[in-house]
Task: inverse folding
């Protein structure tokens, strides 16, 4: 890294709520998202669940959501969780684009300033498996439901998260995910184990998301 910039004095460390969206500054600590009451009420606890296993509270008080998203790591819990919601990111040069589009982009020198979660009624749930409590995940899964559309996100494959969406049969989509998703092996798990887990986690998260809709 030949050049570094400091964003800590720009007031980008807050979560602001409007009638239509949550606006999250890039310097907001992961812990703030984990304990934010309104954000977790809206997401039925999915944001909290995607954060609570990350190392420890001390780490989550320091690590920022912007750093977690801009890195686009395959093992990122919060990235998997946010992809299940309807999110945009704001970049200093390119402006506002969808998170899904941003994840597919190559790395560049643009600066991510905000993450925006749209309040459109989408109900989400998050599941993950770890070998030990604070280890990197073996596999992550987020599911969200909006009207007749169901979205599945699979992360820690151990590659970048992939997104699937269906407006017909969610069970058929889970079968497709198991058959067509590219999984890999590493020191934490084999690709065969990850493929098996994907079906289990998709079913668990789908049931949680359905339960969240009933609670609203």
Result:
């Amino acid at each position: 890294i030949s050049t570094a910039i400091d964003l800590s004095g720009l007031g980008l460390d807050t979560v602001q709520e409007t009638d239509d969206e949550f606006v999250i500054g890039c310097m907001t600590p992961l812990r703030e998202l984990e304990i934010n009451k309104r954000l977790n009420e809206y997401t039925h606890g999915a944001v909290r669940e995607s954060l609570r296993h990350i190392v420890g509270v001390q780490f989550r008080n320091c690590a920022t959501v912007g750093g977690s998203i801009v890195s686009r790591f395959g093992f990122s819990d919060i990235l998997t969780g946010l992809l299940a919601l309807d999110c945009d990111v704001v970049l200093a040069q390119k402006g506002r684009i969808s998170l899904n589009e941003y994840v597919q982009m190559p790395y560049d020198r643009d600066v991510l300033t905000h993450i925006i979660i749209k309040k459109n009624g989408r109900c989400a749930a998050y599941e993950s498996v770890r070998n030990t409590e604070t280890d990197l995940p073996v596999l992550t899964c987020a599911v969200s439901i909006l009207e007749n559309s169901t979205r599945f996100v699979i992360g820690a494959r151990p590659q970048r998260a992939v997104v699937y969406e269906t407006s017909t049969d969610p069970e058929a989509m889970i079968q497709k995910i198991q058959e067509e998703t590219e999984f890999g092996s590493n020191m934490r798990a084999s690709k065969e184990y990850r493929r098996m887990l994907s079906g289990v986690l998709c079913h668990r998260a789908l049931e949680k998301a359905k339960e969240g809709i009933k609670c609203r």
Q: What stands out?
A: Residues 191-215 form the longest helix (25 residues). Strands lie at 15-17, 21-25, 87-91, 95-98, 112-118, 123-129, 139-146, 149-155, 162-166. The chain has nine helices and nine strands.
